[in-house]
């Protein structure tokens, strides 16, 4: 197996559009956007932001899934996943979205990848977040990065949004969606996953030449 692992955000990174925002816009009752502002000011953490927003939803999961339609994914992603797996690099999705939405979109696109994301526990949209391996982790994305680093993996983090910031700061290498929030903090950027693949190929060739 490779020394590397990919932790990849989902909304706005694998998908071109956020999948949660339209659902909150359509089904949440109340001012869910205020929690994004509190998160961006550091007044609440990612888990609290998500819980407060999703518990405003007043419909059930089947209603949400049937409202989703087909969700396109970013060009090059399937090819990128094949490349990583061929190099022995696992690709794990770490998402601040919801598990059932992510699995539905992956299934639409004939993809099957490990997903670390919150699950919905009951009809009132109480969320069960991924367990933290390290209690001092501010959120589960940074916790996942630490988990693999402790196991001697170099973590390549790919993302776009504010929920990726803590994980990206802890990671060994970061790729940010071009012109995204994360791109304002990390300069390696991309539009198509083929660009990430090309960057990784250069990185691995460089390592091979050193041997
Ligand atoms: Mg995102």
How would you explain this protein's 3D organization?
The protein has 211 residues and is α/β, with parallel strands linked by helices. Helices cover 42% and strands 17% of the residues. α6 links the parallel β2 and β3 (115-120). α2 runs antiparallel to α3 (46-54) and α5 (77-86) runs parallel beside α9 (193-210). The longest helix has 18 residues, at 193-210. The two termini are 17 Å apart. Magnesium ion binds at residues 9, 11-13, 159-161.
Question: Which properties best describe this structure?
Answer:
211 residues, alpha/beta, 7 strands, binds magnesium ion, Rossmann fold, 17% strand, 9 helices
Q: How would you summarize what this structure contains?
A:
The protein is of the alpha/beta class. Helix content is 42%, strand content 17%. The protein is globular, with a radius of gyration of 17 Å.
- Any idea what the CATH architecture of the largest domain is? 3-Layer(aba) Sandwich
The portion of residues assigned to helices is: 40-55%
CATH class of the largest domain: Alpha Beta
Main sheet makeup: 7 strands, mixed
Strand content: 15-25%
The run of helices and strands is: EHHHHHEHEEHEHEEH
Could you tell me how far the N terminus lies from the C terminus, measured between alpha carbons in angstroms?
Answer: 17 Å
- What's the multimeric state? single chain
> What structural category characterises the helix and strand content?
alpha/beta
For the residues shown, what is the average pLDDT? 92
Uncertain segments of ≥5 residues (pLDDT<50)? Answer: none
Q: Please tell me how large the radius of gyration is.
A: 17 Å
